[in-house]
Structures are given as C-alpha cells and as structure tokens.
Amino acid sequence: MASTLVNNAVLKFSGHEHLRNRIVLSLLSGKPIRIDKIRSDDKDPGLRDYEVNLLRLLERICNGMVIEISYTGTTILIKPGIINGGSVTHECPTSRSVGYFLEPVLMLAPFAKKPLNLTITGVTTDDKDLSVDLLRTVTLPHLQLFGISEGVELKIKKRGAPPLGGGEVQFSCPIVRTLKIINFVEPGKIKRIRGIAHAVRVSPQLSHRMVEAARSVLNRYIPDIYIHTDVYKGQDSGKSPGFALTLLSESTTSAIHCAEAVSQPGASPEDVALVAARSLLSEIRAGGCVDHKHQCLVMLMMVLGTEDVGRCRIGPLSERSIQFMRDIRDVFGTTFKVVPADPSDLGSKELLISCYGTGYVNSNRSVA
After folding, report:
1. CA 67: distance to chain centroid?
2. H or E element that contains 117
3. Which H or E run includes 262?
4. Which of 53, 82, 353, 356 has its CA 20 to 30 A from that of 181?
5. Smallest Cα–Cα separation from 16: which of 58, 49, 51?
6. What angle do CA 49, 54, 60 make, to 5 degrees?
7. CB 245 within 8 A of CB 195
8. DSSP string, 302-366
9. Which strand ranges, in their side-by-side order, compose the sheet holding 351-356?
10. How far is CA 323 from the centre of its chain?
11. Nearest one of 3, 7, 4, 25 to 328, comparing CA atoms
12. 73, 69, 122: which is closest to 98 by C-alpha?
C-alpha cells in the first residue's frame, strides 16, 4: 500500500508483506516509519516470532534505534539510529531460515560505522527464503558490481536443515564510503553451470543422485556443468536430516541466474534435482542480467550510487520489486524509468530499468 506522511515526519505504511525492505529504507534514509494493519484481519494478528527476531537483530547492529510495538503487535513505529556494525552473534528461530535475516543485513552492512562480523545460527536452507549457498555464490557477486568486494565473506560452519536447524553461518562485510554506478545491459550467452548438492544426516549417496538427475536435464543444453557434493557429518550437520540442490548459471558477461530446491517429506533426490534444474531453465528463459530474486538488491544499490544514471537489464518485474520501486519513490524521492529492453522483439519480456543515483555517502563511517 502507498505511504502517507504522518505529522510531516513519519512515513506511514500498511501491511506485513514488505516489512523488511521498508525497515531497510528507513535505516538508510534516517526517516522514521510507522507500519500498521499488520495481519489485523488474521486469526492470529500482529508480528510473527521471526519478524520480532529480525527487529532484535537490527537493534543490535544499529545504535540508538527505537522500536515501539503496539500491545496487539499490529502496529510498529521505528525511529532509525546509526548503523554501527561490529561483532554480533545472533540466534534465529526455526520458523524461517537465516537467509530471511541476512538479506536486509546485506543491504545495510556496507554503510555501517565499523566492518560487520556477524555469527548467526538457525536453519540454513528452506523453501521460503534464499539459502546460505545462494547468498554466498550469487548475492555476494551482485554486491561486487557496485564496488563492495574486498573482505565480503560468508562461511558456512554448520548446516541446519528444517525443522530443528542447528546451522551456523559467519558473515563479514567491509564498509564503503560510496557505491559505483552500474551499466549492466548485456546478458550475454550462458557459458557454464555450477551447483552445490548438499546432504545432512542422510546417506551421502543422495547428493550423488541429485547430481545425476540434474545433469540428465542440463546436459542437453551445455557441457560445462560442475555440481559439487557437500556432505556434512557429526556436529557440523545440524539437528535434522535433509538435502537440497542449488544451481547457478554464469554468462559471458558475468550475469548470474540461480535456482534451488529443498527436500520435502517423501520426496526423492531425483524429484528435488528436476525441480531445481527446470527452475534454473525458467530463470534463464526470463532473461536479463539479474534474476528475480536479486532485483530489489540491485535497485537499492542503483539508487544509492553516485550521482549518475545507472542502467540494468532485467526479466519481468516481480510483485515485490514493483512495490519496492514505489517505496523507494516515497522514501528517497527517486523514480525508475522502465522500458522494454528490445522494443523490436514483441515476444520479449525483458526490461531496461534506469535511475539517477542519489549520491548516497556513508555518514556513519568512522574517520580513521
């Protein structure tokens, strides 16, 4: 829902769907926000445990951040503080994977006062959020497009499958003063496919079966395929059994598309591999230089870039990305120009988005 100004200072939003992105925009812009009608019509109204947990994590990363939650939990008021960074340890609930919590942290960490070293525990892979494998192999290279490269690292110490989790991840990120602007309009041709088939507390043979099944689909299109099998045992394998397959394709211009599938009760490794392989082919078919899972991240970094025009070619906009564009307009006052990437090709759904960077400077950065 569109935002409105309250008391000429506080931005007002409604609903729970885009909570994370709106909090990130508030912290980066320094503008307080009020979000109401959070599941107000639900049988169990208000914030969920993982949303409250996310607010606690952000409160630990930031200094002077004020969070006010109504008695029913259906309204929150956030007054942003300074993004502090430093060393933080956090435990996530098992209702969502650590990807849910790391996504907003990834957007904020480069603009902290001190480099962030975050140790986070919980479920490392589920079917709702980005897995730690995708964050490490796809999301971090997207940050490198904007000049955030040296010192960015994500280490998987322990894996944790749902429902009990038990995984542990270490994320470290340096601070930057300003971001580069991008001009990423050539998707190129797919030159290789890479993947990770991981299995915890199950037979290692399951990961090999996933690799074979994925190859049976992907080898028809390209020969350069390497899928790494990652088997964790003992203490490093978490508390629950499970397996998953993460796939990514890289083009001649370094455009990355990704897909993943996670084991469900009763599902065979072949089922998981076929879902992941077909999802990857669908992502590649959608086109663009950025897949739909990372559209919001790229848009935010384009807006925060230096005062110049940034351009990027993407596939069809997701509903989340469209709403994020509206929220960016309300918070930063920046609008995107969206045009067909190839007007002569009526069958193409690829888009070319462009915006003028705000010239955002990291004012939290401590001067050496």
Report:
1. 23
2. strand 116-122
3. strand 256-262
4. 82
5. 51
6. 130
7. yes
8. HHHS-SSEEEEEESSPPHHHHHHHHHHHHHH----EEEES-TT-TT---EEEEEE------TTPP
9. 183-184, 309-314, 351-356, 337-340
10. 16
11. 25
12. 122
Q: Which residue, chain included where needed, has tokens 């090709």? A: 345
Q: In the numeric block, which tokens belong to residue 248?
A: 């990514």
What is the pLDDT at residue 368? 41
Averaged pLDDT, groups of 10, the chain, 368 residues long: 59 95 96 96 94 97 95 96 95 97 97 96 95 97 93 95 94 95 95 96 94 96 96 86 96 97 94 97 95 96 96 96 97 96 87 96 74
Distance CA 365, CA 84 (A): 9
Q: Which runs of consecutive H residues, i.e. helices, occur in the chain? A: 19-29, 49-61, 98-108, 132-134, 140-144, 205-218, 269-286, 295-304, 319-332
Residue showing tokens 């003992």: 234
| Residue among 16, 17, 88 at smallest CA distance from 56 | 88
CA-CA distance, 107 to 25, in Å (whole number)? 9
Contact 187, 253 (CB under 8 A): yes
CA–CA separation, 147 vs 141, rounded Å? 10
Tracing tokens 């690292």 back to the chain, one arrives at: 153
